[in-house]
């Protein structure tokens, strides 16, 4: 697709970047209306310069509930691409009412149990930055978020499309947060982030833009707990729609009220023969591409493609395989076998973080009450000693080999 854009001189533009980050759609659209509220949300009274060049564009990732009107000098052709999804907060009188409508009493009780277990074992805070954040804290949070995202996608074994654009995100969101056009939601343990989301805001709509969590805390369902906290914050701050954007995930399917298609818009100048020719060529190629994608999904080839992509990514990143371990009870007196005490921030300790978090999830112990020891004469074995519970953890050879590479 990029080769086609270069050959035809088509200039691709990201609607999310133009509209939500810059709030400037010139020279592409002079009006945007929300089909759901039937309200106009953007207007530009500027005139197109006669010297505007290039004369044809491709604007992508336009949420399908927006109606876009190009400047009168341009003609627009649209193609549906991938699905997005919305939560319509105004359909429910309150956050509690939304939860009752979306989840059974058993599911709601499970969310409370997971949150209680998390707070029982860790010093947890959930903070929102919207309207004010210092540059030093912002830089620190974004660096930690980037590392979290890298580790999350290494675990999944797939490439992350956001990381190549991280410098842009880092430059952009500081001013957006301080002008209340974005917010950061952070769940932290002892002031260290373990779940994170960056969200754009336009009018009364919240856009879930970037999200990740510490993979070592997977058993606590941090992604869902963070999302529920964000929804509660949204109600308290007058948000009417929560756009979850792209991606089909289980947690989304439980919450969404409406699905839509993202739109690609091909714009070309009406008076330019070259623009008309290349604009229609671009439209035809994109139209055929997405019909091919839909055909692949229909015959399940997309799943094969994802499996092959995951396999290829993991082949190239073998040294980053997840920590693998087994856990067991220690019989007899543990004091006789204890070696040195291990700190979590040591070279060895970082490989014991996930086993420790899993141990805390199962036992309910508090992290500050658990000591970690090596076990004498067993170089792959370590002991977690809490107030009420203890377990031995045996790291596999591959995990240790990563450590000593």
TrEMBL record:
Pfam family, one: Acetyltransf_6
Transmembrane residue ranges: none
Keywords of the record: Transferase
Superkingdom of origin organism: Bacteria
GO MF terms held by the record: transferase activity
Entry-linked SUPFAM superfamilies: Acyl-CoA N-acyltransferases (Nat)
Record bears the keyword Protein transport: no
Protein name listed in UniProt: GNAT family N-acetyltransferase
Organism: Muriicola soli
């Amino acid at each position: 697709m990029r080769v086609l854009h270069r050959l035809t001189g088509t200039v691709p533009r990201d609607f999310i970047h133009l509209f939500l980050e810059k709030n400037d759609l010139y020279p592409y659209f002079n009006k945007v209306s929300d089909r759901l509220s039937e309200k106009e949300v953007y207007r530009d009274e500027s005139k197109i310069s006669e010297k505007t060049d290039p004369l044809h564009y491709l604007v992508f990732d336009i949420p399908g509930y927006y109606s876009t009107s190009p400047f009168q000098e341009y003609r627009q052709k649209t193609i549906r691409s991938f699905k997005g999804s919305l939560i319509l907060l105004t359909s429910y009188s309150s956050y509690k009412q939304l939860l009752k409508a979306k989840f059974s009493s058993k599911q709601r009780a499970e969310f409370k149990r997971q949150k209680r277990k998390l707070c029982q074992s860790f010093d947890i805070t959930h903070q929102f930055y919207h309207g004010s954040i210092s540059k030093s804290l912002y830089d620190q949070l974004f660096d930690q978020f980037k590392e979290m995202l890298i580790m999350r996608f290494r675990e999944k074994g797939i490439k992350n499309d956001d990381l190549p654009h991280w410098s842009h995100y880092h430059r952009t969101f500081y001013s957006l947060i301080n002008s209340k056009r974005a917010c950061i939601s952070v769940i932290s343990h002892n002031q260290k982030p373990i779940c994170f989301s960056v969200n754009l805001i336009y009018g009364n709509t919240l856009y879930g833009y970037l999200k990740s969590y510490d993979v070592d805390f997977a058993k606590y369902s941090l992604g869902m707990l963070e999302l529920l906290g964000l929804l509660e914050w949204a109600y308290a701050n007058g948000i009417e729609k929560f756009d979850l954007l792209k991606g089909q995930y289980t947690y989304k399917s439980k919450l969404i009220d409406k699905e839509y298609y993202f739109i690609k818009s091909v714009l070309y100048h009406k008076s330019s023969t070259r623009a008309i020719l290349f604009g229609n060529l671009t439209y035809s190629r994109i139209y055929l591409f997405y019909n091919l994608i839909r055909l692949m999904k229909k015959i399940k080839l997309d799943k094969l493609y994802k499996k092959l992509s995951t396999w290829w990514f993991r082949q190239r990143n073998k040294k980053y395989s997840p920590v693998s371990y087994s856990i067991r009870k220690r019989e007899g007196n543990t004091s006789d076998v204890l070696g040195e005490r291990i700190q979590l921030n040591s070279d060895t300790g970082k490989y014991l973080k996930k086993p420790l978090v899993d141990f805390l999830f199962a036992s309910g112990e508090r992290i500050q009450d658990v000591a970690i020891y090596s076990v004498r004469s067993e170089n792959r074995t370590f002991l977690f000693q809490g107030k009420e519970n203890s377990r031995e953890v045996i790291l596999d050879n591959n995990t240790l080999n990563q450590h000593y590479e």
